[in-house]
Amino acid sequence: MKYVAFLRAINVGGKHVVKMTDLKRLFETMGFTNVETFIASGNVIFDAKKASESKIEAALRSALGYEVRTFLRTPTELARIAALKDEDGTLYVGFMVDEANAEAKQKVKALCTPLDTLHADGKEVYWLCRAERFSDTKISGAAVEKALGQATTLRNITTIRKIAAKYN
Known about the structure:
By secondary structure, the chain is an alpha+beta fold. The protein has helices at 20-29, 53-64, 75-82, 102-110, 141-148, 157-167; strands spanning 2-7, 33-37, 43-47, 70-73, 90-95, 116-121, 124-129, 153-156. A 4-stranded antiparallel β-sheet has the order 2-3-1-4. A 4-stranded antiparallel β-sheet has the order 6-7-5-8. The protein starts with a strand and ends with a helix.
């Protein structure tokens, strides 16, 4: 079965820099096959009979010396996400390990501003940002995580669409 691992905090702002060839090799040492990376922001595609976020996180922590939160999706799941329409703005998708509960969904909704529309659905949070630049928004990834009560990693819908198109 094919999986896509979205890794949190890899090659962001010059911190926790990992060469994609090294990341590929790490996934191969975990026993995964047909390993590929997609852009240098911690997207790893691989085949496995079975994969678990916790197994990958433990192996990466051991190899890299720091925690790397991992979020797994299948190409089918990504195709569903990729089919979403992004309106006037840029759509970002935050991946979570667990589904957001009703309280977390309300907290995420409370973050909305005239420039930012957010909602959680299943194991994803969707953030439509209408600011000219993402850095112009008043909301942070940390605020979204606090509202959700769990870690997340964000990707631009363009990245998700490219991965979905290539692997579905």
